[in-house]
Design brief:
transmembrane; Cobalt transporter subunit CbtB; single chain; transmembrane helix; elongated; mainly alpha
Amino acid sequence: MTATNETVHGRIETARTELTPMQVATGLLFAAAIAFALLFLQEPLAHDAMHNFRHGAGIVCH
């Protein structure tokens, strides 16, 4: 990355030229799935399931 691309605008322009529409769609879908999980799956059962999954994967939560 050159010095002219060290701004947000420069990085957006670089991404616009280098990413395919499928990569952009995949990224947006992933972001939407994360947002859905964070906003709507805060029920205790879903929260406990995600918590147990993190521990099972070896991720330290607390």
